[in-house]
Every structure is written in C-alpha cells, then in structure tokens.
Amino acid sequence: MNHFEYRGGVLCCEDVSLSAIADAVGTPAYVYSSATIERHYEVFKSAFAPRDVLVAFAVKANANIAVINTLANKGAGADTVSQGEIERALTAGVPPERIIFSGVGKTEQELAFAVQTGVHEINIESVAELETLSRIAWALKKQPAIAIRVNPDVGAGGHAKITTGQSDAKFGVSPEQALALYARAHADKHLAPKGLAVHIGSQIRDLAPLEAAFKVVRGMVETLRGQGLSVERLDLGGGLGVPYFDEPDPPPPSEYAAIVHRVFGDLDVKLSFEPGRLIVANAGVLLSRVIRVQDRTRPILVVDAGMNDLLRPAMYEAFHDIKPVREPSAPAQRYDVVGPICETGDTFARDRSLAPLQEGDLIGFMTAGAYGATMASTYNARDLVPEVLVRGDQYKVVRRRWTLAEQIALETVPDWQTD
Q1: What is the value of pTM for the model shown?
Q2: How many structural domains are present in the chain?
Q3: Where are the alpha helices (DSSP H) in 160-232?
Q4: What is the pLDDT of residues 300-342, one digit of tens each?
Q5: Is 13 an active-site residue?
C-alpha cells in the first residue's frame, strides 16, 4: 500500500491532491507520504518479532531530514556512508547509538568524527582502514565499536551497478581476510570488535543469494567463536526489492525474516538491517507537467522533469510507472516521454501506453521516493527540485526549490578577469 490513489478524479497523496501541491509548489517536485514510510518500516520490523532488531534506514536512499525524522520517531536508526549523512541523521533526531557508518572511502576526518560521535559501529572494509581507525582511536583515547564487512562472493541486485557482493566489487574483504582482520582487531586495545557485516546488492528479487551469503557469515561466526573470539552482533545489510511496475511482487519482509531465522535463529547475536529502497521507494512520487507534445510517428511527451531530477532511468535503465494526475477516461495511446535536458539519455520511457495527455497536464513518476531527490543535481543550470512531505490532509515543503540565483551566489569571478 502506498497511499497514492485517485479521489474525485484526481491523484492524491493521502488526503492531499497532487494538483493542489503542483499549484502551490510548482513542478517538478517530489511528494512523499508519511503514512507509507511509517507503514513500510513497521511491516519490516514486525517481520522479525518477537526478536528485537535494529532497523537502520539507509540514508543514501533518501537523505531529507524530515523523512529521516519520520523514521527516527518510530525508533529507526540510520545506515550512513559519509560524515554528511551522519550529521543529517543526528540533525533528524537519530541518536548516535543507532547510527551505523559504512563505506569504502571513509576519510580520516570522517572516521574521527564517527569515533567522537560514538556511533553504534563502524563497518571496516579494508586492512588499511582498520590501521587508520586504530591510530585515530589511540589519538582520541576512544575505543570505537567495529564490524568487519565481509564480501562473500555472492552478488545480487537489479542492475550491475547496484550489485555489491561479488569478489571483484570494491566493497568489503574476503571471508578469509575478514577472519584475520577480526582476530587482529581483538588484539588491538584501541578497537572494540563486535561482529560482522554483509550487504550484497540492491533491488534483490531472489532470496537465494541472500541465504547463501548469510550461510557464509554463519560459518564465520562459528569459526571465530571456536577461536575464543566474541561475536556479539551481525549487520545483515538491506537490498530487498520493490515493485516498480506491473510484475510479480518481490518477496515480502516476512519471507526474508524466515531465512534470517533459519540461518541465525539459534545464534546468540544482535541483528541489524539497512533497508532503504524498501522503506521509501513507494512512498514518493515525482510530480511533473507536460510542456508540449511533439507530433511524430509516435508522439513525444516533453515534460518539465529531467534526468537531473530523476536519474534512475538514464543511469540504470530503470522503469517508473507514469500516472496522469487527472484520472484517465479515454483509451490509452503510445508515447515516448522525455525531459528538457540536452542529452538523448534524458528519456524516461519509450513506446509507453498512457492516457491521452496534452500541454499543461500533470503526471506522476511513481515509486520515486528512493534514489530520486538524493541523486538530483542542477545540471543544465536548472533549479534543484523541491521536496514535499504529506501527513493526512496537511503538507509541508521540506526542501525548498534551490534557484539559479542561489547557485550563482556560490561562484566567483577571479579579480584578474575583472581588471
């Protein structure tokens, strides 16, 4: 359930019509449903009941502090991959003890910030990073909690660019190296090794690779404990897929939880998860307006949203369902749907069956709450797209449109060019 439906002939987000938001805020604009965000979080967490787990929302999916705060108020943590994301999570009300810090390129400044902040754990992804963190911890007289990220050579995901668990990926270390690193960390008085972490990809629709990866981690826990080393927690990542169009639904969280229980149910460990897309994708719509219809063999809809606003179709060949804001009443026809960016790649759909549309009509790109606004840019000197959060019959602009004047204000012409 995503709380976007037609009421009185108009597509609404909860109890607010998207046409009213377009009139007030302009287009393009992202619109999020609070009810959907909360429901998806609750469905995921309850799948593991009665076991208490840490659900750390993957901030990279949607970094808006109002969205993060919606989840923080439900008890969620945050999975972060930069100091900026940690600071966003803290600003949004996520306590440090519910923040996980991952990523292969953590700088010394970022690691020091995470240590001083006292995050739940820092996921280590290389020998060099372990050595750097040890030195930082010694200097700060702290003992940060860490987990070693395992690359199990089990890749999965909806696209090669979001598959992270195969052996040649940049993420994590091999199981053999992870075992050695974990033992080394235990011998380091500046570090507090707590467990292992694994994440093999995003938009996963087949649970078999996840189960295979989990079994690798299970075997590692047994090996480490057999060596007399404590393993208190496991970070099992995220990656569950969502339905982007009319296709069989991906496995629900309940089936995923059943696998987790089957593999780890008898282990005395605390579990954490990092869902992102699963929580927010179906909670968001990119609202856009038709600029014109170009008369071709197959009509081309030119809309005011571009690949700078929603990059996924250009970057991943991703499919987003497109719905007219005015409920259709006439037979569908075939269109190409493109944006105004000066790139052939700025194409959202080809030969798509849509209700008849004309200049000025509003449309919604559905399932756009994840990796939409967070990947947006000002390419072609366009305004940065705003974001709107809805709760019931209320809505609020939670990121205003960033104008060209504000962009230019950050730039300077050198004195020698004005002499």
Answers
A1: 0.93
A2: 2
A3: 175-186, 208-226
A4: 999 999 999 999 999 988 889 999 999 998 899 999 999 999 9
A5: no
